[in-house]
Protein: Release factor glutamine methyltransferase
Organism: Desulfobacter hydrogenophilus
Amino acid sequence: MSVWTIKSILSWTDAYFSQRSIDSPRLTAEILLAQTLGLRRLDLYLQHDRPLERQELAAFKIFIRRRVAREPVAYITGRKGFFKEQFKVAPGVLIPRPDTETLVETAIGLLSEMERCGRQARVMELGVGSGAVIISIANACKGHLYFGSELSLVALAMACANVKAFARTSVALFRGDWLAPVTPQPLFDLILSNPPYIPSADIESLAPEIRDHEPRQALDGGADGLDAVRVILAQAGERLLPYGRLILEIGYDQKPLVKSLAQGFNWVAELDFIKDLAGHYRLAVFKK
């Protein structure tokens, strides 16, 4: 029986993934093998000639089959790096994207400005998913009050687990459909969300990792992708304090639609759009 070392199994898996058009085949092989062996990726190279035991090979083969079936790497490993942490994720919970770090950075900028003015803000995230966004913001700006809502019980449980593991200040989470459970009175300085904004007709053309594995309710934004945006805009005006802001992540081509939509809400005094690192309009910032 041939002996598989770390080096030889990585080379074989790299080729196997490449033949099956798996994205970043070498990197994926390294991440999955490191997860199997309980090592850092660097350790794979430091121990490249280490032979794998039978049970390690069996466990790694299971990971390979799951990835070839287009299950996202984050679901296989149970972790996804976002901002400064490796957050827990699982099937039924939207995987945090690098694009959404623009939302975090924008919120941190606004809250840091409030801190310099000696203000303590109330911050609310709608649809927290894994909790990665609100936890990242709270850890960066600890002097404020943080709240989050989530309709999915699966996602809410994961967000609570991430708060317990990673939050370095209080973050209060509750179950709710956007702002519906919140009393309609001015309470928040900042409301933010990464709502579902993909048009329904575009869902089938998504990569199978997304289409077949991630929760559809966190992706599907209705006919034009803006169903959730309409609901949030309708609810946010009464719940924002004077001069408060609502920040929403949007699709790269949705700026004209969002701009037109905002004109139907009298509470919106100002509307700005912010680009992500790729140069796409990624955020809509509504000021009361």
Notes: The chain has a mean pLDDT of 95. The beta strands are 79-82, 85-88, 122-126, 145-150, 171-175, 188-193, 240-249, 270-275, 281-287. The first strand starts at residue 79 and ends at 82. The chain has two domains: 6-69, 80-287.
